UniProtKB/TrEMBL annotation:
Protein species of origin: Paenibacillus faecis
InterPro entries: DUF3969
Protein name, per record: DUF3969 family protein
Lineage of source species: Bacteria, Bacillati, Bacillota, Bacilli, Bacillales
Length: 111
């Protein structure tokens, strides 16, 4: 099985990553994913570098997401609050993104 997602415009990429991040944060909050999973999928410095033309707040959010593991290791009592804060920040950023016409992110969606 292969999945190909094609995003051509910065607004699409930012919106997609915010939506993906909300699912990732919920999965971490509920214990459905480990931090190792989250880092393998999304929370790597490479993602913030991908966003070089994005809204500065989104770039900073993804840079900070890479540090959640440090909070888990150094101040585990603050982890749940940090995850909830990042979820709130992501929702606020998503709401603030320009409204674009919905696009099919999956190639050959209707084939």
């Amino acid at each position: 099985m292969s999945l190909h997602i094609e995003l051509k415009h910065s607004d699409e990429v930012q919106k997609f990553l915010c939506i993906l991040n909300l699912g990732m944060l919920d999965s971490l909050l509920e214990g459905a994913l480990t931090f190792e999973d989250a880092y393998a999928y999304l929370y790597r410095p490479y993602v913030a570098q991908l966003l070089n033309n994005a809204n500065r707040e989104i770039i900073e959010l993804f840079e900070e997401l890479c540090m959640l593991e440090d909070i888990r290791d150094l101040a585990p009592e603050k982890l749940q609050d940090a995850l909830k804060l990042k979820k709130r920040e992501t929702l606020d950023l998503l709401k603030g993104l320009s409204s674009i016409s919905p696009k099919y992110w999956l190639n050959k969606f209707d084939d």
